[in-house]
Amino acid sequence: MPALFALATSLLWGLADFGGGLLTRRTPALTVVVVSQALAVVVLGAIVIATGGWSEAGPQLWFAVGAGLVGPVAMLTFYKALALGPMGVVSPLGSLGVVVPVGVGLVLGERPGLAQVAGIVVAVAGVVLAGGPQFRGAPVQRQAVLLTLVAALGFGAVMALIAEASTTLTGLFLALFVQRVTNVVAGGAALYVSVRRGNPALPVEGFPWRSLPALSFVGLADVAANGTYSVAAQQGPVTVAAVLASLYPVVTALAARALLGERLRGVQAAGAGLALVGTVLLATG
């Protein structure tokens, strides 16, 4: 069961990234982040009120606040890296943040079996290859690599923090609500600074009202992914849950192939196959 929750996390994150990528073609990335998360806050707030989640408030919510602060920083750093370096290099490196929750699991005493260790290695290799890394071509700026690694550590830190933010289902709703409120505050502050520097907050045609359903999907899919990952990390080994949850680049690549007709390169197809093999090893190990 934990493996299914972790795989659901990959599916949701992969689709959220795909949808977010499409939206940022017309709307500034910061605006997409802030609006999608604000819509998620409204839904989560209603759920917290309906379930009485406020009763679960406690010191562990600081983990949710931490995740909410780290998330936007990691995302903005990642976007900056994409602007500086080839996407075929930056994107796969961004998935290496899985080492953070895996490392936390090992420190806490988890010891995966031989089959699971093999699955971790194969799955991580598959994720990196699925991003279509460029083995030759344009040089990569050292700053782009550094920013990507910082973003990867941030993504991994969010996974580690949200897994510690709650122990019950109602507590999880409250933790996700606090995380998203923090996301909106931090993202909103960054958006304000960006506008003050002369960058547009909206596309030329104005607020993208027609994109509200897509923005809602991106925000809610991201929230749901954090929720399913938290459940997977609490019910099973974090080392396994983190790797299975990090297969989302494969989902994004397959969604682009199915919905946009983008053709997978040979290295991406091989990566998807390796990720599948790693998944089987992790689920059965």
Automatic annotation (TrEMBL):
Task: Note whether Transmembrane occurs among the keywords.
Answer: yes
What domain of life does the native source organism fall in?
Answer: Bacteria
Q: Which UniProt keywords apply?
A: Membrane, Transmembrane, Transmembrane helix
The record's annotation in SUPFAM superfamilies points to: Multidrug resistance efflux transporter EmrE (SSF103481)
Name of the protein = DMT family transporter
Biological source species:
Streptomyces phyllanthi
The family classification in the record reads: Belongs to the EamA transporter family.
| Domain called EamA: residue spans | 3-130, 144-283
InterPro entries for the chain: EamA_dom, EmrE-like
Return the GO cellular component terms, semicolon-separated.
Answer: membrane
The membrane-spanning stretches of this chain are 28-49, 61-82, 113-132, 144-163, 238-260, 267-284
